[in-house]
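Q: Can I see a sequence and its folded structure?
A: Here is a first one.
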Amino acid sequence: MTRTAPTRTEPTPLIDTFRREHGFVFIGSYELASDDSVFVETPVKITERRPLVYVIFADDICRYVGKSVQGYIRPLTYHKNGVMTDVRDGILSDLKAGRKVTVYAKTTGLDASHEGLDLNLIEAIEQSLIREYRPTWNNQVQSFALQPAQSARLKGASGGNA
């Protein structure tokens, strides 16, 4: 397999605003090799186990929101996944269309309790993001690109420095 040059990993202004507003960090990007196989470039140790919520973007389009207690291995191995074929095939399709496919995760601020009861913030954050961004690979009807109205809301929340 011959690898092509990796895509740029710096976020677009809209994704950067998403990251700041929701506390997500870059954990990897899917890349397309010259033989049309997919590989991952990542700055994290893929085998590190930790609970997280993650988002896969294709350019400025939120494609998938997920959660994992297995850590980084789940969001960074969809290109090998024989079960989640919508996500696997979507990644390949977006890469072939020239889109940048990046993965961001939230690994902190996921523990909370109320009146002595543990709260499942991972599930709550995942569901809230799915409702907000309606990602197509989460079996929603339409993908949600960060449209001008959404962009304006994000810019307002971040002080307009997007």
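Q: Show me another, different protein.
A: A second, unrelated one:
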Amino acid sequence: MTTAAATAVPTTGADPMSTFNYPEVGATREPDRLPEGYHYLRHHVLIGHGREALEAAGAMVTGWRMHRGTGATVEADAETAAPGVRLVVGLGLGRLRFQAPAEVVWTVAEPDRIGFAYGTLAAHPERGEESFIVTMGADKAVWFTVTAFSRPACWYTRLAGPIVPLLQRLYARQLGLVLRRAVTLPG
């Protein structure tokens, strides 16, 4: 399998979701070199062992089921993540549900590494990018990693201050729990 990369050229037009709202599109490809001026999120958790666990978790990640498993809604242009696919993730409850439009900027489908990253679009409450990667090491341990950089893009996320990064960490942990339960980590 090969790695696919998206061309990171924002489009223009009247659609408020038509452009990325940050300039460093694709930066999560190099998680040790994230751009300055953002909050960073790195969450790395063991979710299982072996090829079957890797493939099951990879399918959940790239098929939106990981997000949906947390109670989030996902409306996407395609059933699986691919560069250029647009999606809207809905988080929260009732009147407090936030819509977070994004676009997949890169994917990876290698024998021991599966996942994707999406970047925020103009109507997203944050600016930045987030990657969701499942990897299997030589010891057959399967790990899930979330890497993100973000900063507020609207008044209510600026007003929320340090609560937003806390909520992002809690959500990343929840994503890991969804995957861990799905691949039934022994012990």
